[in-house]
Amino acid sequence: MQKSKPxxxxxxxxxxxxxxxxxxxxxxxxxxxxxxxxxxxxxxPMALAGHSxxxxxxxxxxxxxxxxxxxxxxxxxxxxxxxLEQIAHERMEEFHAPR
Length: 99
Prior knowledge:
Number of helices: 4
Strand content: under 5%
Number of strands: 0
């Protein structure tokens, strides 16, 4: 039995978007098509929910939160602060490492 191919779609993108897809593909060792599919998989759920993402604002909020937590931890639990970075690295590897 032959496996059926998924539906095909085609559309035009700007030269900047194409360059970005190529950069993603190179970084991840995949094809341009796979990079585009991954971008769609990430963006479609947000678009369906009516959300958009302001990456600059998201990064600012992450950095603000990190700075606030860092200040609190060092003030209230200075003895535990050095071990938190190691725990964070371990969690990054466990939950956010490329697959």
